[in-house]
């Protein structure tokens, strides 16, 4: 039923396909925003613990951030895969997820045929992937920089205390 609706409304209709792709791109950004918020909250908690001199290694927190960001990307890819599956463009979830993955990451193997009447959607998925991967890269740079700055600050404070005690 839904696949029929997609064929009737979206197939070959550039405007309708752009609206659908834009809506899914926006949803992808919202999902990514939730993941980024989780990362920022985790980083903030880690920074507060370090400021209070509670012994906690930042590696564990950084590893958790990586897992959250990876899960966020996988959830975004799954959203697009479910759309492709639901609209009948790809037959099974495994193939839809594979196609969405290689398109999201802009590898674009082109080994999975995609209906010509929906060609705009994979292009929009690639655009979403570029945005989200760029966002993740910027966030990882900022968080890594923050961890390094906190580490250096703590090291300098520790060295200053040692010099003051001597």
A few lines on this structure:
The protein has helices at 2-9, 14-51, 58-86, 93-104, 120-165. It is an all-alpha fold.
What does this molecule look like?
It is built from five helices and no strands. The mean pLDDT is 87.
Task: Summarize this structure as a short list of keywords or feature phrases.
single chain, 166 residues, mainly alpha, 5 helices, elongated
Fold blueprint:
Elements: H1 2-9, H2 14-51, H3 58-86, H4 93-104, H5 120-165
Helix pairs in contact: 2-3, 2-5, 3-4, 3-5
What's the N-to-C terminus distance? 79 Å
Number of domains: 1
- Which value, in Å, is the CA radius of gyration? 22 Å
Q: Give the number of helices.
A: 5
H/E element sequence: HHHHH
Specify the helix fraction band: over 70%
Specify the overall morphology: elongated
The major sheet is characterized as:
none
- Return residue spans where pLDDT drops below 50 for at least 5 consecutive residues: none
Overall average pLDDT: 87
Strand percentage lies at under 5%
What structural class is derived from the secondary structure elements? mainly alpha
Give the tally of β-strands: 0
